[in-house]
Design brief:
- With 255 residues, the protein is α/β, with parallel strands linked by helices.
- It has one domain: P-loop containing nucleotide triphosphate hydrolases (Rossmann fold), CATH 3.40.50.300.
- Strands 2-3-4-1-5 form a five-stranded parallel β-sheet, sandwiched between helices.
- Strand 3, helix 8 and strand 4 form a beta-alpha-beta unit.
- Helix 1 runs antiparallel to helix 5, helix 3 runs parallel beside helix 5 and helix 7 runs parallel beside helix 8.
- It is globular.
- The model has no long low-confidence stretch (mean pLDDT 95).
- Bound molecules: adenosine-5'-triphosphate and magnesium ion.
């Protein structure tokens, strides 16, 4: 069986659909999707299963958010260059009467499509022996999950807290070092001062090293300092281009 229907590299691949090449032995396919199709760089990048088919070709918000659509497409096409230049994005929901929290209008879909595009292009560069992949090239982290991993260091028996502290340090390192980081839903309210310090450290490290970060949020940039600190807010502002997302909550089915 050939793999062109599920392989994200198919649009870039001249051998897609050819039984001799397009099979489980294909190295770039294994690199991106893993041996069984559920691993590889996509899994290493921690992309949630629901968003693993999100690509810049199938973004669902062209009609409702034509500007965001155009910017994401453009950024995606030259994503390696953008990431190398440390250019980040701040994708935020604009509240409206029909959607007071600005939810469900495509921010995470856009951010994951860019991560996937980056991994596709890096995989192709590696396959052509133009650039190798050493550490984690891209990583997705939901802020609420990050908070849980951080807090887990302070709960339970000594053994548990120690092993959780190691896990947290490994996660923090990955978030600092990866070439492209997506921080999903950063407008989380009620973050403690100690967690804010951690967020600051990660963002400041990335800022200092000019590493690209994509943020999604339900809070416009000029309000982020009310939730996180002024220092964090000003760094995010300097590191990113802000892109508003408008429209209804597409998670809700209409009556
Ligand atoms: N304009 C749109 N038209 C149709 N479907 C859309 C549109 N925008 C998003 N969707 C779909 O709605 C669902 C939610 O999208 P997504 O998770 O990207 O929203 P979000 O903006 O990140 O929401 P939140 O603010 O709650 O995190 C997905 O299934 C996505 O495919
Ligand atoms: Mg989201």
């Amino acid at each position: 069986m050939t793999l062109e229907k599920t392989c994200l590299l198919a649009p870039y691949c001249s051998k897609a659909g050819e039984a001799r090449f397009c099979n489980a032995l294909c190295f770039p396919h294994t690199r991106l999707h893993g041996e069984n199709g559920d691993g590889g760089l996509i899994a290493v990048a921690n992309i949630p299963t629901k968003y693993r088919t999100s690509t810049i070709e199938n973004l669902p918000f062209e009609k409702e958010n034509p500007k965001a659509y155009a910017i994401i497409q453009k950024y995606g096409r030259t994503v390696v260059e953008k990431v190398d230049s440390g250019i980040g994005l701040y994708l935020f929901g604009v509240p409206s009467e029909e959607n007071p929290k600005g939810c469900g209008n495509g921010k995470t879909t856009a951010a994951t499509a860019i991560i996937i595009e980056y991994l596709r292009q890096r995989t192709m560069l590696e396959a052509k022996k133009q650039r190798s992949i050493d550490e984690t090239p891209a990583f997705f982290m939901k802020m609420a999950k990050f908070q849980n991993v951080f807090n887990s260091q302070f709960r339970g028996s000594k053994d548990t807290t120690e092993s959780n502290a190691d896990k947290y340090q490994a996660l923090k390192r990955k978030m600092m070092k990866c070439d492209l980081l997506v921080l999903d839903d950063i407008g989380l309210r009620g973050t403690t001062e100690s967690l804010q310090n951690e967020i600051y450290e990660i963002i400041d490290e990335r800022d200092t090293n000019e590493k690209a970060t994509i943020f999604t949020s339900n809070v416009p940039l000029d309000h982020i300092s009310e939730i996180l600190t002024e220092q964090i807010a000003s760094r995010i502002e300097g590191m990113t281009h802000a892109i508003p997302f408008i429209g209804r909550d597409n998670r809700k089915k209409s009556l």
